[in-house]
Amino acid sequence: MIQLTYISSATATVNDAEVQTILTASRRNNAAAGVTGLLLYDGRRFLQALEGEPVLVNRTYERIKADPRHRAVVLLSSKDTTERSFGEWAMAAQKVATARASDMATLVDELTAGVADANIRELFRGFARVRAAA
Ligand SMILES: Cc1cc2nc3c(=O)[nH]c(=O)nc-3n(C[C@H](O)[C@H](O)[C@H](O)COP(=O)(O)O)c2cc1C
């Protein structure tokens, strides 16, 4: 398996309802492809991890990259893994908001508790905390 992580910027038309639409399609497609992961969204940027069989993760990522609802998609890491970090979720998601900053950090800590790679875990936790502090 591989686990791939990227960051991107949402385009102006994206709002919470649009993110829900993205999640509905993501969960349907990912369940069919055996892809699991986590999507954080702070109203401006996305941080997403995708994991599963390489061909299926890469195919999903290629489709995501072409999506006009975000831009400046930057691959942060892509590596082999023997275990899933987000195995329970076809796509877990969390809106990172300034409100309830500490609850936010706690939630993201829980979502990332199973991430074996400390760099990836800190990437997600940092994303939640930077936004919470903004
Ligand atoms: C930030 C972001 C994350 C996305 N994540 C996924 C995903 O995990 N899986 C997926 O299939 N599509 C994801 N999409 C949606 C795809 O770009 C694409 O719209 C969708 O896969 C098309 O599916 P459909 O042909 O079944 O409608 C994401 C889009 C964005 C903007």
UniProtKB/TrEMBL annotation:
Residue intervals passing through the bilayer: none
InterPro entries: Acylphosphatase-like_dom_sf, BLUF_domain
Gene3D superfamilies: 3.30.70.100
Annotated BLUF domain residues: 1-92
Protein name according to UniProt: BLUF domain-containing protein
Organism: Sphingomonas vulcanisoli
Lineage: Bacteria, Pseudomonadati, Pseudomonadota, Alphaproteobacteria, Sphingomonadales
